[in-house]
Design brief:
Shape: elongated
Structural class: alpha+beta
Helix content: 40-55%
Radius of gyration: 30 Å
Distance between the termini: 56 Å
Mean pLDDT: 82
Strand content: 15-25%
Order of helices and strands: HHEEHHHHEEEHHEHEEHEHEHEE
Number of strands: 12
Low-confidence stretches: 1-26, 307-313
Strand order of the largest sheet: 2-1-5-4-3
Largest sheet: 5 strands, antiparallel
Length: about 400
Amino acid sequence: MGVGTSGANGALRARDARETPAPRGEEQLGADLGVAPDDLPDGLVVADEHGRVICFNAAAARITAVPAAEALGRQLEAALPLEDLEGRRWWQLTDPYGGLAIRVGQPERNLLLPGGREVLVSARYVRGRPTGPVRRVVVSLRDTEARRRTERSHAELIATVAHELRSPLTSVKGFTATLLAKWERFTDDQKRLMLETVDADADRVTRLIAELLDISRIDSGRLEVRRQPVDIGAAVGRHIQAYVTSGQPADRFLLRVEQPLPQLWADPDKIDQVLSNLLENAVRHGEGTVTIDITPSASPRERADDTTAASAAHAATSVTVSDEGTGIPEESMNRVFTRFWRGSKRGGTGLGLYIVKGIVEAHGGTITVGRAPGGGAEFRFTLPVSTPAYLL
């Protein structure tokens, strides 16, 4: 397959060179880089000025389930019989060799192969001169499975959000409607209890909306990091104090800080978000003592053979949060930082660790999960001690 396709494309380039002394373009660049059609990740189909297929790469053969040897030399419409979603034949509709002479191609769209398999197809019409006859039709094919996975992920996100919003909003609506209709019938203590419930549910909705905004920024690469000096030990201490104030025993937490720590420049609000999520997971899903170790570390950007020198320079700070519970099953380790992963049935949207990973990576850091010495889960994130550009 590879030999026939490469030979066809070699002949294609040779004949083009004889016919038109074209400037350096995509074909010449491909030749200079030594890229063969079979090396391309997407399907590539090229037809000549007569509509005969002269290139049908390996990806096209895989996507269409048609061997290249069968497609080469056939008419494009026969080798690649595409239909739109309404069952109309695409080549007859688009008529690449006829119609308006100013057309340069077809934008990407969903089309159907025989048997109903959906593919993403785009086409380019190559002309020897503007408005001249079409000399080549170049077709790109892409499998839709990756897009379908993304669409399923979005649908699952919408369903999860709708479910998570329904419960607090139902509570808010119920209590406010009851208070408005029967205000005089309740005692002050009853009113206070209902208003406190409404307040807590409103906070829950606010947190969920904040999670959705974070996911949107992470997915689009727009998560902003506003770096300031951060005392990571003090930040952990504040979270521990909040848990103790809310009723957790003080001896359930063990904070160990190895000094001296390098000065850490990070976004304090986002680091608080990371710490809050990891400590909440340890308290809610773990057992026994929750141990937090803060140590100087090698920069996550350093190569493995440079870790000793990097450690001596204190290029990063690592924070490890571990517990003594049952831990995370080995088969789930690679899914912990994906959307909707839940370690147990005890609530949560399953978005927290996905956001944690996005925040850490936005700081140029890394995060890992493993088994703690005490048998529970162990999360370790490492942040480079970056300095804002304006101070360099």
